[in-house]
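Hi everyone,

Forwarding the result from last night's run.
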Amino acid sequence: GGISRTVNYQGYRFDIGGHRFFSKVPYVNDLWHEILQDDFILRPRLSRIHYKGHFFDYPLKAMNALAGLGPYEAMMVMLSYLRAKAIPYNGGSEDNFEQWVANRFGYRLYSIFFKTYTEKVWGIPCHEISADWAAQRIKNLSLKRAIYNALVGSAKSMNGEVITTLIEQFHYPRLGPGMMWERCAELLEAQGSPTVFGQPVQQIYHHNGRVTAIKALNRRGEATEITGREFISTMPLRELIFSLSPAPPDKVLQAAHNLRYRDYLTVVLVIDRENVFPDNWIYIHTPEVKLGRIQNYKNWSAAMVPDTSKTALGLEYFLWEQDAEWKWPDERLIETGIRECVQIGLIRPGEVLDGTVVRMKKAYPVYDNYYHRSLAIIRRYLEQFSNLQTIGRNGLHRYNNQDHSMMTGVYAARNIFGETNDVWSVNIEQEYHEESRPESSASGERLVPMRPRDHAPEPQHTFDEIVEEAYAGQVVEELFARLDTLAMGIAVGTVSGLICAIGILLLFYHPANMPELSGLTRETLGLDPDWVKIVIGITGASGAGFLLGSSMSLVRNCLIKFYLGFTRKRVEASQTQAL
């Protein structure tokens, strides 16, 4: 179900978006291997960016980027990056995607490699997209780290963690991701737990803080009422709230209405060619086409096509359900896909043998600038239900990878058996952790906020308190962010050298304005008409600027570290006195 299924068309299998199987969680990896065993194959990753007629390796490789952008554009990218490190955009504020990426990569690179594609995916300007999405999807990656990786081949962050965006290989089910869950359903049925399909939930009945039953429609359109003791939902939160009976308060309904979802459409083309391109997928940043990404399913697994002399391409379009293209007939969408693939030079029109279209509503929860508030209200309301848990990407309105979504399900199942795990704590920003078991609570292990179970609901917080709680950690992190000493030194050194060079040029071209200087002073500043001395003067100014900038950054970081340590000890002391 959902976007984890694999569609079979005339023997050609394809995903609802490509799904890599990669996780740092041993439990998830073990479970995947246990379910599929030899059908869980290891695949190399190759993905590139297509931008205005050029292909760029992804992750970034220095020589490839220089060849594609050209020396001038590459120089401008580096200057833009140094500018961002010396003087962060918007005063260092990172409230939205544009600010977050520009401060880490420079505005120039952001506008080339991030802006167009991101706005294709989400359908809204980057300054209206929350910075949370960038923090989740581009974790630990920066221009400096990408260049370092290109030169020395490392794919680890400063603390030694594998950078998610740079993973070079992954596991994949031989017949696509749907194979994993089809096999899982078979194993469950063999143990007496059949999975029921094709019965959409219409209403969720509740009373006194507990869900009592659900009403679903069977394949014949007849209403069926199902009771139970525990309920776990992966429905989009908006649909879940609207399905509750009795209905929630108006402010909760409005919060659910404010949640937005991006819809997904894939046009699959069968190409009469054995090899079209070697990539697993290609990101289409070229702004002249609406196409966002192309999957080459045979390069994920050769078993995804019935005839290896043919190739199946998945052309991915990101739309709103209200868009005109969403309602276009399949034939028109296929024609559009062929035309755009020909336009960017990937295929020839006469080699397309067949095509089909699959639409998927609510594929991506949207991280706009207001989702935090709506989500806080909904989450607070749902906490009153002691036997209802929401999990997965849409159940949490969080852009999780599939391993994160699986762990929310694992934690929810364990909660039913007496544990108190917070499924909302599972995300890409932190390591997975379980809350301590009841028997270990006396050992001093810290408990994270737990979901209320079978007791009175907590006092309702005000709207301002909810918003303050959601943003407090983010504000502190931005306020005390560590400055990059090397980048600051380079930036100040570059500016100092430029100022010195400009000053020398002005003095040479306006000799009347040149002050009376001693010979030694003139030589030191590089003002004698000797190019060697001029270069020495500019280099000296740059070196002095580098020392000044790096020293200022180092001193600032040390002061912040001292202040944070002092504050932490003071808080700990006050808490000890309170106890």
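Residues 428-475 have pLDDT under 50 and may be disordered.

Cheers,
N.
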